[in-house]
Amino acid sequence: MKKIIEVTLLLGLLGVPAFAQDSKPPFYLLDKEVKERRSGWNGSHEELSTIFNAERIRLGDRFETELLKYLGRDIEKHDWISSFLECPDYLHGNKPLPQLSLLIKQQAISILHGKTDHESRGNTMKLSVTAAVLSEKLGLHPLAEVYKKDSQRILKSDPDFGGWFPAMDKYEICLYDSLNGPRNTPCNREVAENDRNRSRIPSIGGILNGKAISLPSPVYPEEARAKGISGTVEVEIVIDEEGKVEFARGLSGDPVLQEAALVAVRRARFSLTQMSGQPVKVSGRVMYNFVQ
Q1: How crowded is residue 167: how many other Cβ atoms within 10 Å of its Cβ?
Q2: What is the CATH number of the domain that holds 239?
């Protein structure tokens, strides 16, 4: 008993609380934030990624070990946290960890292996696409080709899985498209970031809502509804030669509403645009109005 008191007093003299925050489980605050949101992992990821990176710093050398334990068999955690480790928008100044991100994607794909329900197959396709791109970025070309074949196999089995195709920038789309085939021109990250390759994709201008064959309505996020958030969201999209949404990003509107709009627009289908009798990719905008 005397020794316990002495240790407690010593911690107090050093300015360290005897019952420090380290007593809470790793990623406790992240879990708490997700559970308190009605939308869970959906909605704005700015705050979630901020909390995640703070925990990454707090855990230090224990980070990777504790992270893999925290992920468990939760596919949604795997999906978003792999993005937090690699996407520049979510790093908040921390060093990207693409190898760890790929490991987490692979772990999620392994968990989903053999599952035949629609959601599991959709998640498998989405994770395979991002794993293919990340593998290619890391110079693991044979592995990247395997993941692309897996994603294409699922997509060919049911075109509706196109709605699960993840949003990617033009550089990533170029990497993905070049797999399992000849690469006519090199994929240039700098060019993609600077001008988004607009010279290669005609813009038909204006709003594309009227060209939609199918335009699913977004689900109004409960988080936004509870806070009284409403308004118009403008989304930029690229439509491929089959009328599917190949790329999408939010241009304006509340971030929480943008996320809901992006989920909806990726499932949309549009009438084809032709040039010289051939279907072509086009870019344009879609508008969504969120009214309470």
Answers
A1: 17
A2: 3.30.2420.10
